[in-house]
Amino acid sequence: APLPHGARANRPAPPQLASASSLPRHRRCRLLLPAMSQARGPPARGIACRAATTTPAAVAAVGVGEDLPEGYEQMMPTVEASQRRRAGVLLHPTSLRGPHGIGDLGDQAIAFLDWLHGAGCTLWQVLPLVPPGRKSGEDGSPYSGQDANCGNTLLISLEELVKDGLLMENELPDPLDMEYVEFDTVANLKEPLIAKAAERLLQSPGELRRQYDEFKKNPDVSGWLEDAALFAAIDNSINAVSWSEWPEPLKDRHPGALKDIYENQKDFIENFMAQQFLFEKQWKRVRSHAQKLGISIMGDMPIYVGYHSADVWANRKSFLLDKNGFPTFVSGVPPDAFSKTGQLWNSPLYDWKSMEADGFAWWVKRIKRALDLYDEFRIDHFRGLAGFWAVPSGSEVAMFGSWRAGPRNAFFDALFKAVGRINIIAEDLGVITEDVVELRKSIGAPGMAVLQFAFGGGPGNPHLPHNHELNQVVYTGTHDNDTAVGWWQSLPEEEKQTVSV
Fold first, then answer.
1. Ordered per-residue pLDDT tens for the chain, 501 residues
2. Active-site residue, 482 included
3. Catalytic residue from among 70, 80, 358, 480
4. CA 22, 125, 499: angle at the middle one, nearest 5?
5. Burial 261-287 (b: 16+ CB within 10 A, else e)
6. DSSP notation for 335-387
7. Does the keyword Kinase apply (predicted)?
């Protein structure tokens, strides 16, 4: 793995932790260099831009969910802020060198934390820990997850289940060494054993069963866990592309239909919830070890959730859906230098007015869950909380959307009132207007810079090291980039000269 800023080259990597330069993209880690940078030297410079044709006051006057004025995307920000300096590594647990074709929450996660500590790092950032999307085209991405609150049970360590007495040593499969994570192969190998361990947990009257019962009763867990288990049970029994194709009593959550599902699928539902407990138990062990070493774990929270999810099915009034449950508008971003037609993400958009009316209750629950898993977390596409791009459902490209006002400070006022102040990192890449920066500053959240984006666009490029701000997280690259080594090796010689200078 690449050395953090200031680390000594003679500090060894933990046993079996693969070198980042030898790994393909799915198995690599990224360096945050430095996280929470406190730049020294000349003050940070503003961003050069075209003159805006609207004003902050005009934008602030627009009601939530309403169209923003023309010229909104040109209303560019100035910069400032502050925080202490830290360094860390972005590495999703799937990329640890696990024995069964995927990294897990066993001894290699502990060894990685020990290595971070020895290298002088105090931060480990992970990608979303949710069950990854495994439908066609999703390729196991944690950004197309099946549920915003559940844990990815493929991360459960089989060896830790042996230590808990839930599996026998001779039941473990032979080691499976793969360069890439092949999620279907891993699932076929691990899921039957994890389900067997969960069944044994449910049949056991011991301490683990008592802990499981407490986990289920936790009011911050029970709501989302029951919805997720019911959704999974229905999805497992009905061959449909999405929940909108389910029979109407199930699609519309008729109490009698849900009761029938629970009674008919009780074993499946209990096993599902027991697997979530096992994930939780192992993750808590990893997080506890990190806390002992003084390492903060940073999570990642995509602002939007997938349509075919318990989140949307169980909370329809919180999303912009028609009477049949179909999205009326979907997410994306407008055309830019990287895409002539924009990016169409197709996630359903929130009904922010409805959410504000109930105090953003769904978001409060989601934030509480994040705080249960992480010490701090990044909000992906933070700018969508200030102004979001709404694309009519059914559009083939994103360019036909429009800017609409987000919930802005009302959102964070409600969150802070419910859970107190929280450590948030704002992903503020892309089209960042002045209101986005003002919202970020108002909550004291650091923004981001990416070193791989720095070497183009002239001396005013905000990603160049001499333009880094106080209170900013600086990455060599994110999950969307190559590793630093791969990036350097792919650069043309003339660009290498620019970087060297």
1. 343 333 433 433 443 443 333 333 444 455 564 444 333 333 333 333 344 568 888 888 898 889 998 888 877 665 443 447 899 999 999 999 989 999 999 999 999 999 999 999 999 999 999 998 766 556 678 888 889 999 999 999 999 999 999 999 999 999 988 888 999 999 999 999 999 999 999 999 899 999 999 999 999 999 999 999 999 999 999 989 899 999 999 999 999 999 999 999 999 999 999 999 999 999 999 999 999 999 999 999 999 999 999 999 999 999 999 999 999 999 999 998 778 999 999 999 999 999 999 999 999 999 999 999 999 999 999 999 999 999 999 999 999 999 999 999 999 999 999 999 999 999 999 889 999 999 999 999 999 999 999 998 889 999 999 999 989 999 999 999 999 999 999 999 988 988 887
2. no
3. 480
4. 55
5. bbeebeebbbbbbbbbbbbbbbbebbb
6. -BTTBTT-EEEEEEPB-HHHHHHTTSHHHHHHHHHHHHH-SEEEEETGGGGTE
7. no
Tokens of 78: 């100035």
Confirm whether 480 is a catalytic residue.
yes
Nearest residue to 17 via CA among 102, 114, 120, 96? 96
What's phi and psi for 167, nearest 5 deg? -135, 155
In terms of DSSP bridges, do strands 387-392 and 329-333 run parallel, antiparallel, or are they unpaired? antiparallel
From the candidates 160, 427, 434, 435, which is the catalytic residue? Answer: 427
Q: In which element (H, E) is residue 329 found? A: strand 329-333
Cis amide prior to 99 (ω within 30 degrees): no
Long-range CB contacts (within 8 A, 24+) of 283-292: 283/105, 283/129, 283/151, 283/155, 283/373, 285/105, 285/160, 286/105, 286/109, 286/110, 286/113, 287/373, 289/110, 289/113, 290/113, 290/124, 291/375
Q: Extract long-range pairs of 231-238: CB within 8 Å, 24+ residues apart.
A: 231/147, 231/309, 231/310, 231/313, 231/314, 232/268, 232/269, 232/272, 232/310, 233/261, 233/262, 233/265, 233/268, 233/269, 233/272, 234/261, 234/265, 235/308, 236/265, 236/268, 237/261, 237/265
d(CA 231, CA 269): 9
Burial of 480 (0-12, 13-18, 19+ CB in 10 A): exposed
Catalytic annotation on 164?
no
Strand partners, 333: 343
**Catalytic residue, candidates 380, 428, 434, 435:** 380
Angle of the 183-203 helix axis to the 207-217 helix axis, nearest 10: 110
pTM: 0.85
331 three-state secondary structure: strand
* Cα distance between residue 48 and residue 384, in whole Å: 22
